[in-house]
Amino acid sequence: MKKREQMEVQEQKSWFGRNWGWVVPVGGCGCGCIGLILLFVFGIGAAFFGISEMITNATPVEYAIEQASKNKEVLRYLGEPIEKYGIPSGNISINNDEGDVDFLIPISGPSGKGTLIIRGIRTNGEWIYEDLYVRIKETQKEINLLVKEKVLEDI
């Protein structure tokens, strides 16, 4: 009879008592700690890709990619098509019709990789480039893309 009494006294733990180890991080503090972490990570990711997309579609960047894609010497080293890869670095500043750009964009083609370098200013709504060239990664050769273009030294 003692065994029977001991069995009746022993109560099963509640569902929360058995599962608290994963309930608290997932849903215990409002939307859950993991929910807050995911919201933070996705928010940072969305901001990064939004800014990256804005920079990638900036006029100097589009112009530089177009010039690199039309340059026969760049195409000889990198192949065709020329594409952006990786994360661009530098800064671009636009205030109404004025601004400046100082940017490095990793580019690649089927035959190699390089970096597109853009430096210039914007005056009266028009971009004037000081530097616009491709540096080939394998050889460090620099290919000028400013031939017959307005350059800063001419001003």
- Measured as a percent range, the helix fraction is 40-55%
The major sheet is characterized as:
6 strands, antiparallel
CATH architecture of one domain: Roll
CATH top level class name of one domain: Alpha Beta
Structural Rg: 29 Å
Descriptors:
single chain, about 160 residues, alpha+beta, Nuclear Transport Factor 2, Chain: A, six-stranded antiparallel β-sheet, 5 helices, 6 strands, about 40% helix, elongated, disordered C terminus
Describe, in plain words, how this protein is organized in 3D:
Strand 3 and strand 4 form a beta hairpin. With 155 residues, the protein is of the alpha+beta class. It is built from five helices and six strands, in the order αααααββββββ. It has a domain at 58-154: Nuclear Transport Factor 2, Chain: A. Strands 1, 2, 3, 4, 5 and 6 form a six-stranded antiparallel β-sheet that branches.
Topology, element by element:
Elements: H1 2-9, H2 15-28, H3 33-56, H4 59-70, H5 72-78, E1 83-84, E2 89-95, E3 98-109, E4 112-123, E5 126-136, E6 142-144
Task: Write a concise synopsis of the structure shown.
Helix content is 42%, strand content 30%. The protein has helices at 2-9, 15-28, 33-56, 59-70, 72-78; strands at 83-84, 89-95, 98-109, 112-123, 126-136, 142-144.
